[in-house]
Write a sequence for this structure.
């Protein structure tokens, strides 16, 4: 292992999903939001559309009581819960000389929020993000972009943790040493085997 990659949502960020809060506090259920999250939002996370430009007609349909900026701000803040025990492992890896990067599917406002407001830009060595490379993690292009940004590193020298089995399978197909993240204890066990 020469490089470690970590997913964000469900791994380094462990807040309650925004969809849960929308349903519980605003009555905006998955049935209401499905068209948005399977349509325009995919374009946003690919970097092909702007979230703030795509949201207004949907917010009107959903009966959102405030502005687009309020919606985005609440969304970003709601999911701002860091997995500090895992971040301690990232610090230890970096101290020992292993670069650690984020590998995540995000639109540009959340990508910036993760880097800056959540502080993960300063606590890692960089970020591979869908809105900047144009690919989702289940697509080979995502991993091609990652590996091309790590010259001299073979795929098997990159260890990757994600909470999605599909993303782990895609990374494995690209040759990475990919593992399903369940808990810090499971990560510790994997890392002990890598030594």
């Amino acid at each position: 292992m020469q490089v470690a990659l970590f997913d964000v949502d469900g791994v380094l960020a462990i807040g309650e999903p925004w969809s849960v809060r929308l349903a519980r506090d605003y009555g905006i259920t998955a049935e209401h939001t499905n068209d948005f999250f399977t349509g325009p939002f995919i374009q946003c996370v690919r970097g092909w559309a702007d979230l703030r430009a795509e949201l207004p007609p949907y917010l009107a349909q959903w009966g959102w009581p405030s502005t687009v900026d309020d919606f985005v701000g609440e969304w970003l803040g709601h999911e701002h819960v860091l997995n500090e025990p895992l971040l301690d492992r990232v610090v230890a890896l970096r101290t020992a000389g292993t670069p650690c990067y984020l590998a995540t599917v995000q639109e540009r406002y959340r990508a910036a929020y993760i880097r800056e407001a959540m502080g993960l830009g300063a606590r890692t060595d960089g970020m591979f993000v869908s809105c900047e490379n144009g690919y989702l993690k289940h697509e080979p292009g995502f991993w091609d972009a990652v590996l091309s940004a790590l010259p001299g590193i073979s795929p098997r020298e990159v260890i990757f943790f994600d909470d999605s089995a599909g993303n782990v399978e895609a990374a494995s197909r690209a040759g990475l040493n990919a593992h399903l993240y369940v808990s810090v204890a499971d990560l510790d066990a994997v890392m002990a085997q890598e030594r």
User: Anything to note?
Assistant: The chain has a mean pLDDT of 95. The longest strand covers residues 100-104. The radius of gyration is 17 Å.
